[in-house]
Write a structure and sequence with these properties.
heterodimer, A: about 0% strand, rod-shaped, B: Rna Polymerase Sigma Factor, Chain: A, Arc Repressor Mutant, subunit A, 2 domains
């Protein structure tokens, strides 16, 4: 190492920056802001996940509900016929059928609304996550 | 160590502060910033031409460090780990400005007359910062890491991503320029 290289290293070593309290305070504030926004993001993500889960559950109900009705209808009709042979009151199968129809019509409308809301919530969460990364 | 275990931050060791900060203790990280800011700002001031830009980048580097502290394996590795973040922050800023590796136009930036100042004539105090400001960004970066931080050429390659030949050339040329500017005639 030449004399100049040694001199250079010494000059670098001696070149200290004075302490700046304002700098530390600025960093502390920036870190605090970062943490707050991170917490907010986590809350939003949790809400999004919860909304998505609710939508998925409702969608499963909307899809599986009619299938279950179709599967159970013959069984309930059989039971009703069996009951009618003993008691001549109105058929239980008719009441069950009209209730299932009403549920299906309400379900179809609500499913679209909830799917749209779920898509929006999921999109918002994905957008926030992408921005943060 | 639990974050709340640090009763007296000012007396805590740096390793204890780092471990507490990894547990998301903002006060411990604040104390760490307080202790390391002089070094970090000095490092970036020697890389940048403007003090304001250097302080902005130092702040950005500390915030990145806070976000990535969990990646730090041992507290002893903190200086090298943080230096890498600082250098990356500097390089990214230069890329944003599309100003990496531009050469200084000697004619457009006449030297503060190093030969004619009383200090230079007397062969007195070296104005390292002024001299560094006369180097290109890449030369300044490589010279600072080599002479200021004591990194080898291969370590500079690793930290900056520049080819080895380029690093050697920047260190050599930068040092030679500094010699011409600073060495007493």
């Amino acid at each position: 190492m030449s004399d100049f290289d040694a001199l250079l290293k010494r000059s670098f070593a001696e070149a200290h920056e004075p302490q700046d309290d304002g700098f530390s305070v600025n960093v502390a504030h920036a870190v605090a802001r970062k943490e707050k926004s991170l917490q907010l993001r986590m809350v939003l993500q949790n809400i999004g996940v919860a909304a998505g889960g609710a939508v998925a559950l409702y969608a499963a109900y909307a899809v599986l509900g009619p299938i279950a009705v179709d599967l159970l209808a013959p069984a309930s009709a059989g039971i009703a016929n069996l009951g009618q042979s003993f008691d001549p009151t109105p058929a239980v199968g008719d009441v069950a059928g009209s209730a299932a129809g009403w549920l299906q019509s309400v379900g179809a409308g609500l499913t679209q609304v909830l799917l749209a809301a779920g898509a929006l919530a999921g999109g918002a969460v994905a957008y926030r996550a992408a921005q943060q990364d | 160590m639990a974050a709340r275990g640090l009763l007296n931050l000012a007396q805590a060791t740096e390793a204890a502060l780092i471990i507490a900060a990894q547990a998301r203790d903002q006060a411990a990280f604040g104390e760490l910033v307080k202790r390391r800011q002089g070094w970090a700002r000095g490092l970036l001031r020697r890389m940048c031409r403007s003090h304001a830009e250097a302080d902005d980048l130092a702040q950005e580097a500390f915030i990145k460090a806070w976000e990535r502290l969990k990646d730090l394996e041992t507290p002893a590795a903190f200086p090298g780990w943080f230096r890498r973040i600082a250098v990356t922050t500097f390089l990214m800023a230069k890329r944003r400005q599309k100003a990496v590796f531009e050469e200084i136009d000697e004619a457009a930036n006449p030297m503060a007359s190093e030969d004619s100042t009383p200090e230079a004539q007397a062969g007195a105090k070296i104005d390292l910062e002024k001299a560094l400001a006369r180097l290109s960004d890449a030369e300044r970066l490589c010279v600072t890491l080599n002479h200021g931080e004591g990194l080898s050429h291969s370590e500079i390659v690793e930290i900056t991503g520049l080819p080895l030949g380029t690093v050697k050339s920047h260190v050599l040329r930068g040092t030679e320029k500094l010699r011409r500017m600073l060495e007493p005639q």
